[in-house]
Amino acid sequence: MADVGFPGQHTTTTTVTSSTTVQTNIRFDPLYIRTIPGILKVVQVACSLLGFICIQFSALNNAGKGSYFSWISMVAFWFTGILLGFYLFHIVEKFYKIPWLKIEFVFCSLWTLLYCIAAILAVTVRDNPHSAAAFFGFVATAAYAMDAFVKWRAVRAGGLAQGTRVVSKQTTSAVTTPPPREGY
Question: Which of 69, 112, 158, 180 has the greatest CB tally within 10 Å of its CB?
Fold first, then answer.
């Protein structure tokens, strides 16, 4: 009787191909602002600027808490504003070999923590400008946290910051069974 179960020979061939499609010309594309990362960047820039302005209107803005909030909000404003410009003009796509998603993930994760600390410190100061700045700080914290999550998912999926990457996987299997053995 022939053995029943696994075949005598099993061959599996997997072919994975990947192609990256980018346009390396610089061009203005206002449609980026309508995407989720674009909306998050606009919210981050606006909250950073508004929070900074609120702190500057406080009579206590030279205190350590106000200075810390000002520093955090201005670094966030300039970094995120420049990145927003890079995305709007497809400069990120032009330099697609730079790991933009990882850089943004690290920045957004770090600024989520730092903005949360700055907003909590601003709440402890009992004046209206600090309270308003704290509100914008908490909104910015939420926006940076969402952006960090979006970037984390994109990094895990192997995506590009801009442009497209097409990954196709083709699997072929061949099963060969030997002739049955006589005499069992």
Answer: 69
